[in-house]
Design brief:
The protein has 392 residues and is α/β, with parallel strands linked by helices. 39% of the residues lie in helices and 17% in strands. Bound molecules: N-(iminomethyl)-L-glutamic acid and fe (iii) ion.
């Protein structure tokens, strides 16, 4: 192998904390020991032995819009014929068509489809999944959707983190009075969601055709006062100023970032805001603009990856596919991409103490892979039969 290539592979081994000839002990769903197999403690009693070439922690999916009804395949066709995502949204379609379908759907139907999607995420290797609202866009509807997420979470096969995204689009009934909707979010829905313990975090879509940086600052500032974590969709369709907002409110993450400039990235670095990159959107919407992932890494920023699973801009549940796309489209190294679906998203969701790494005390949900090396993980495009779940 070329020497530079082999140095890069060694650096990546260190980045993922590779243990060669390693072993893990789990008991009652908890990791009790991890290290080199030769150094294993002999006093742990009888254990079932499972041989695998590669072991890694369950994946963490930190950005989905998995609670929705309806289908947007017609819009997919329109884009195929040349219309853009932003044009469709501005004309009252896009997110707003899903809002109409989701408002009209029953609790049972929404719960059933969400449960099925969470099971699909588990099958693909995810142990934790974040789910956003944002297709209710009205006080009662948004609270109803948060309640459904919580109820489904109680019996879900994965851990669920709930995010209130009432600021996903300006609802049709407030088009001429958007301030009234921001007032409703800050004065009514956010406090109610926080008080009832229905949301772990709040999010805002800060972009052209959605919410301004000033509106995002107001909403996320309120979320901070209420003790909720903060997330922001920013710089997806245009340079929208959301990175400065994310830094000011000490957000857990800024997501999308296709149009984020060097100055924006500096804002994020100064406040240690993690970046969540969503390469499925780049492919699904066929956009040319890419987030500058290398500049983010160079600034010391933590980079997570996510499917952004939603009916409009990224209709996939496959986080393994994102690992491959992050390497090919965004030039992350395999190690950076792997951290982007384990350790970093676990931190973004404030679950780093139990997920995202194989460490003592963490949850014993693991993945094994029949591969010659962990370096082969991104080389396989999408989750395939070589990945197996252990413990969940
Ligand atoms: O993250 N950008 C805004 N929201 C979603 C898309 C939601 C939709 O189109 O329904 C996203 O891409
Ligand atoms: Fe999103």
């Amino acid at each position: 192998m070329d020497e530079a290539l082999s140095d890069a592979a060694d650096a990546d081994d260190r980045r993922v904390g590779l243990i060669e000839e390693g072993g893990v002990f789990c008991q009652e769903g908890r990791i009790e020991w991890v290290g080199r197999w030769a150094d294993r403690p002999r006093n742990l009693g009888d254990v079932a032995r499972l041989d695998a070439a590669v072991a890694l922690p369950a994946l963490v999916e930190c950005h989905t819009h998995a609670l929705f009804a309806g289908s947007r395949h017609r819009e997919f066709g329109l884009r195929n014929a040349g219309r853009t995502y932003a044009e469709i949204l501005e004309a009252g379609g896009g997110i707003l068509s899903t809002v109409e379908a989701t408002r009209a759907a029953s609790d049972e139907a929404l719960a059933a489809s969400l449960s099925a999607r969470l099971e699909a995420f588990r099958q693909l290797g995810c142990g934790v999944v974040e789910v956003k609202t944002g297709y209710g866009l009205e006080h009662e509807q948004e609270l109803r959707h948060l309640r459904i997420i919580r109820e489904v979470a109680n019996n879900a096969p994965v851990e669920v983190v709930a995010t209130y995204l009432g600021a996903h689009a300006i609802p049709p009934e407030h088009r001429r009075n958007r301030d009234a909707y921001v007032d409703e979010i800050c004065g009514r829905t956010l406090p109610a969601a926080a008080e009832a313990g229905l949301a772990d975090a709040a999010d805002v879509f800060c972009d052209r055709g959605a919410f301004t940086a000033e509106e995002a600052a107001r909403i996320l500032g309120r979320a901070r006062e209420l003790g909720l974590a903060r997330r922001i969709h920013t710089d997806e369709l245009s340079a929208s100023g959301g990175c400065a907002v994310a830094a000011a409110v000490r957000a857990q993450s800024a997501d999308h970032l296709e149009y984020a400039s060097a100055g924006d990235i500096e804002h994020l670095a100064r406040a240690d805001v993690a970046c969540v990159l969503l390469p499925g959107v780049t492919v699904f919407l066929d956009t040319e603009r890419r987030p500058d992932a290398r500049a983010m890494v160079a600034q010391g920023l933590r980079v997570a990856l996510s499917t952004d699973y939603n009916p409009g801009s990224s209709h996939t549940l496959d986080l393994w596919l994102m690992v491959t796309l992050a390497c090919t489209l965004l030039k992350l190294t395999p190690g950076e991409a792997l951290r982007g679906v384990t350790r970093v998203p676990a931190e973004v969701l404030e679950r780093g103490d139990r997920f995202g790494r194989i460490g003592v005390g963490r949850r014993g949900w693991l993945l094994t892979a029949d591969l010659p090396s962990w370096h082969a993980l991104p080389y396989h495009m999408s989750a395939q039969s070589h990945i197996h779940r252990v413990g969940f």
